[in-house]
Design brief:
About 40% of the residues lie in helices and about 15% in strands. It is of the alpha/beta class and about 350 residues long.
Length: about 350
């Protein structure tokens, strides 16, 4: 897969011109890794993991953010603004720093993993935490953007969706076609919307012969699309998808219906088990929300809903280092012993 700027690689598929700066931190071209342990467990002949945690700031957000920030620079913006559960904040702050722009981030207080907050701080973002869920933070930044105070770079910005659709192109390029089914976590629902757009465009352009069924998975405590109504106080340890009123609601429903797929929920216990499975059986350390795609695949396979499927891709949206507290919770206390062989052997026993 070619390197360089994602904007340059996919310019003909993106809303860019010669005036759009070719901003880059080396985003995109992320690995598609064969998942042998999941194949054995599910009985599906081919299972692949799209490891988006290999993007520059450790999440899929970089694909859309590079386009959104480049277009903001082209339009003469001086400040970008976002609400975030963490990954958007890290990405916006990094690309703003790269472009020489200021960045303001509004977070839901106490609901952002430390690794993500640290990134936004390190990149120099101005950060405000508001009392309430992510949806309250998004409402505030939309009002600020409407007042002309900054350019909004959340996924309600259409350039974000355009950049994120390039992951679907990469899957088709690597596999030679779209998969039979794609499993993806759903929070604010911009990513499932973007992937579906990418697969539709890939089929139209001859990059793929088929379009996959789209299977989106929300956390059971934050599943407005499953329940059909916003969730005022969403709850899940998978902080990246702790969203009660997705901004791209209609796009997610369209992706589900047009592809013949489904949007379902998985419990925190199922997400946590899939999170540990990915690390310990596939060797891939993803953040908890990413594991919703694997949890969803396992759930649907157990239910017999994938008997006609031969090739599946699960999207892993972010790197496990984003949320070290969750990783630490997988094990008990680490024993501390004298530096002798006998002491170490006793501890291991």
């Amino acid at each position: 897969m070619p390197g360089g700027s994602l904007i340059e690689r996919y310019a003909v598929h993106l809303p860019v011109s010669q005036r759009t700066p070719r901003l880059t931190l080396g985003e995109g071209a992320t690995p598609l890794v064969r998942a042998a342990a999941l194949e054995r467990e599910t009985g599906i002949p081919e299972v692949w993991l799209k490891v988006e945690g290999q993007n520059p700031t450790g999440s899929f957000k970089d694909r859309g953010m590079v386009v959104a920030v480049a277009k903001a620079v082209e339009a003469g913006a001086r400040v970008v603004l976002c609400a975030s559960t963490g990954n958007t904040a890290a990405s916006a702050a990094a690309y703003a720093a790269r472009a020489g722009l200021a960045c303001t981030v509004v977070l839901p207080a106490g609901q952002v993993a430390e690794g993500k907050l640290a990134q936004a701080i390190a990149h120099g973002a101005r950060i405000v935490a508001v009392r309430g869920p992510f949806d309250a933070a998004l409402s505030v930044v939309r009002d600020l953007a409407s007042a002309g105070e900054a350019t909004l770079v959340n996924s309600v910005n259409p350039h974000r969706i355009e950049g994120q659709k390039t992951a679907a192109f990469e899957i088709c390029e690597t596999l030679g076609d779209a998969p039979d089914a794609l499993f993806i976590p759903v929070g604010n629902a911009g990513n499932i919307t973007a992937y579906w757009r990418g697969f539709v465009e890939a089929a139209r352009s001859g990059m793929a012969r088929q379009r996959p069924r789209m299977y989106g998975y929300q956390a059971a405590g934050a599943a407005p699309l499953v329940g059909g109504a916003p969730v005022p106080q969403p709850e899940t340890f998978a902080t990246a998808i702790r969203i009660g009123n997705p901004a791209s609601w209609s796009g997610a429903i369209a992706a589900r219906d047009e592809s013949g797929g489904a949007i379902d929920a998985v419990t925190d216990a199922e997400i946590r088990d899939a999170y540990a499975f990915a690390a310990r059986c596939e060797g891939i350390f993803c953040e908890p929300a990413s594991a919703a795609s694997i949890a969803g695949l396992r759930k649907r396979a157990r239910g017999g809903g994938l008997r006609d499927v031969r090739r599946v891709v699960c999207v892993l949206t972010g790197n496990g280092m984003k949320d070290p507290e969750s990783a630490r919770s997988l094990a008990g206390p680490i024993p501390e012993v004298d530096a002798t062989i006998d002491a170490v052997r006793r501890a291991l026993a």
